[in-house]
Amino acid sequence: MRAWEGRKGDRSTIWKCMFKCTFWALPPPHRTATMWKTLSPFWGEEYEVHVPPTFHCISFYVMDEDALSRDDVIGKVCITRDLLAEHPKGYSGWVNLTEIDPDEEVQGEIHLQIEISGSDTVRKLRCRVFEARDLARKDRNGASDPFVRVRYNGKTQETSVVKKSCYPRWNETFEFDLDESATEKLCVEVWDWDLVGRNDFLGKVVFNIQGLQTMQQEEGWFRLRPDKSKGSLGSLQLQVRLRDETVLPSGHYQPLVQLLCQEVKSGQDGQVHLITLIDETTTAECRQEVAINLVKLFLGQGLAKEFLDLLFKLELDRTDEPNTLFRSNSLASKSTESFLKVAGMQYLHSVLGPTINRVFEEKKYIELDPSKVEIKEAGCSGLHRIQTEGEVIQQSAQHLQSYLTDLLAAIAKSVKACPALIRAAFRQLFKQVGEHFPEEKHKNVKFIAVTSFLCLRFFSPAIMSPKLFHLREKHADARSSRALLLLAKAIQNVGNMDTAASRAKEGWMAPLQPTIQQGVLQMKEFIIQLIDIEEKEELDLQKAFTLQTLVVKEGPLFIHKPKGKGPLMSSCFKKLYFSLTSDALSFAKTRNSKKSAFITLSNIRAAEKVEEKSFGSSHVMQIIYTDEARQLETAYLQCKCVNELNQWLSALRKVCVNNLGMLGSYHPGFFKGDKWSCCHQKDKSGLGCDKTRHGVTLQEWNDPLDPDLEAQLIFRHLLGVLQDLEASHCKALLSSGAIADQDRNCLLELQT
């Protein structure tokens, strides 16, 4: 799903815009960066998330950010599931924004039982309100204070208010005298109670009593409906694609996975392998996705280096011109780029983070292009003078040289920080390119082959768009963005080994030439050290990645420490540094301190959010696990923000995806005194009052690997390839023996 840009509407007072999309029944919303002081914002951001199979629609909100008050909603776009189903390759285009009506902003479902009872003379209409789920969040604390209003034949009754919950439980019953002659309908409305101002409408369900008299009783979950809608405002350009995948148990994918692994291990010559077939049949439209799937699958199998090695060989076999090597968006290029993002994001952050943070904090005006230089005033108060163009460029060059020097020094010192698996892959690339182009005139080609990925496809894009690589939470302002762009160009020139063509392309970069030339020497020395990796070190890390024992997520969290016992018990949170691997969740006082095992992952039974009212704090999660005595225990951890909370929950749920005995329900509150704060149950070990959400996860570069999903996506692609081959002139290729029998038979077997 991509949010591209917006067209301005008729509001002249809109100064800044942000874009927020809400996946109904999948809290919380995702949010783009804020575009400041514009009526025609451009975002260009992409999100991939898992949505429940029963979702109804996806809502996109364009909002005006306010620092001191609640953000104003400018308008929204609602994309229904039916619309996405009509566009299997994705829906793309401009969609009109609609005006926001609070009575329209509804979502969720309510569990009701409606029945007619009594004698022939006195008949009663009884409405039992059980609970609701996935209600809209109307309050600033990220929840609502819902209550239900039941109206029939001019009479109204209301439930109690459940504070700070989008999954409230009431279990209250209301009775009305049934009027046989009335045409009045039974209306059940859900509202958010507000202490100040009017209550917010959350949705309603309307029942026809005449139809109910035939059935006598109706019970179930009913989708909440809106009241009305209004006109349109501006428009939003979107690309949205719904992909519905059925992932089977691991055993179903073993023939495919084994065949792919066998091909990568053997690297047989003279046959068209499945990898080659994929390479030759992927289109520009799907190549990125297929590359990501293959990389993640082979990472999980411990064969990422061998897979890339095979792709390097295939690319070199069809390349005679060194200047074009790995410059196209081939499967080899896309796979290596994806490999770096999956395996090297922590390394990227450690290398680029300090310099990028410095650019954001200093906000220096930097410009080397004479056609874009803005002349400005300089000097102290009372002695202002206009700087010349040459002075601006000279000052800009000094600032940029400082940033570039720091960044090159950070890269040069990062050899040990670079994951051994990446170093091993680059060692193979360096060796293969050197053997393919052994001439003295091509002595730089093997270095450029490495930097074409490391600098041009990894470092430079992250420098230009740090938010997209999670280096910053917001996009850069115009001044910082220009400084980052020039810094990225400089790194590209270093990666190109400062060729004549590179210098001639943008001659105004000449003031940086001495630093770039020095950077080329540093980069060559860095690459020589980078590929000098011991075989044992490579095998150790490859084994670690196969078992997925690398750090999945780490960072500071606050752990709940109860004080005292009984009803007077108070709470506090202590800050510790947590580390999540595929084995355990551990903690230490600081990042570099010795870690203590905290929770073994196989013992985790649920990872869920905690209601804000439980501790009076936002962004608290709970981890329910079994101790050594097989008794359930709960750890409460507080995150610094909602994004951090979602990332921890996502990571925990994914590494525990195959755990046995996962809970189906939990308590979103806290047991204090003699009852749960959420449902007031007095049995501490009783069933939870809310459902667990094991399937609600994010999908980011640093997410744990999901081998079954990757295998399913690769299988789907191969199935499409097989259908295309059978329906085209390539059908003869299948029967000619050019494709190995085992490959063809495996495809045919998988198809059935």
TrEMBL record:
SMART domains, A to Z: BTK (SM00107), C2 (SM00239), PH (SM00233), RasGAP (SM00323)
Sequence ranges assigned to domain C2 in this UniProt record: 1-95, 106-222
GO biological-process terms attached to the record: intracellular signal transduction
Keyword entries, A-Z: GTPase activation, Metal-binding, Repeat, Zinc, Zinc-finger
Repeat found in the keyword field: yes
InterPro entries tied to this protein: C2_dom, C2_domain_sf, PH-like_dom_sf, PH_domain, Ras_GTPase, RasGAP_CS, RasGAP_dom, Rho_GTPase_activation_prot
Entries under Pfam families matching the protein: BTK, C2, PH, RasGAP
SUPFAM superfamilies named among the record's database cross-references: C2 domain (Calcium/lipid-binding domain, CaLB) (SSF49562), GTPase activation domain, GAP (SSF48350), PH domain-like (SSF50729)
Span of domain Ras-GAP: 286-496
PH domain mapped to chain residues: 550-657
UniProt key word Hydrolase: no
GO molecular function, one term: zinc ion binding
Protein name according to UniProt: Ras GTPase-activating protein 4
Species per Swiss-Prot/TrEMBL record: Sphenodon punctatus
Highest classification ranks of the organism: Eukaryota, Metazoa, Chordata, Craniata, Vertebrata
